[in-house]
From TrEMBL:
Membrane topology note: Multi-pass membrane protein
Keyword Cytoplasm carried by entry: no
Protein source organism: Callaeas wilsoni (North Island kokako)
Protein known as: LHPL6 protein
PANTHER family linked to this entry: LHFPL TETRASPAN SUBFAMILY MEMBER 6 PROTEIN (PTHR12489:SF12), LIPOMA HMGIC FUSION PARTNER-LIKE PROTEIN (PTHR12489)
Length: 141
């Protein structure tokens, strides 16, 4: 198995993959904000939520749905800021995963990653990391 990476490059590739995986798992989990509502534990992330209130028209009251799921549509995400955060964080995670998988392929294929490609990939990772943390494009959490 030929490699186009140095020992440091191989370590970078595996750490990149672990960081990208952690970012993606964090993006998909609905545990960004935890709290309680109507005496029930609730949590939500950018596009997933657990235990949310729903208006029951038959009983004319608000009841808690105790299950996790995505919002019904992109417009159902509670605010414009959270919609922007969903897009930016998703793009950041996608960039991180793309670079990490390319770096892992560089462990197996010779001449795949040159010094210039490695530097560009590092820059893309930096942008992806900034975006997946919500710090890019003026979005704050």
């Amino acid at each position: 198995m030929a490699s186009s990476l140095t020992c440091a490059g191989v370590i970078w590739a595996f750490l990149s993959f672990l960081c990208a995986a952690a970012s993606c798992v964090g993006f998909f989990m609905p545990y960004w904000l935890l709290g309680s509502q109507l005496e029930k534990s609730v949590s939500f992330g950018t596009f997933r939520r657990c235990s949310y209130p729903v208006r029951d028209e038959n009983l004319q009251t608000t009841v808690m749905v105790e299950q996790c799921g995505r919002y019904a549509s992109f417009q159902a995400i509670p605010s414009a800021e959270w919609r922007i955060c969903t897009v930016v964080t998703g793009l950041g995670c996608g960039l991180l995963l793309l670079v990490a998988l390319t770096a892992l392929m560089g462990c197996c294929v010779s001449e795949l990653i040159s010094r210039t490609v490695g530097r560009v990939a590092g820059g893309i990772q930096f942008l992806g990391g900034k975006w997946s943390c919500g710090e890019g494009m003026g979005v704050s959490r």
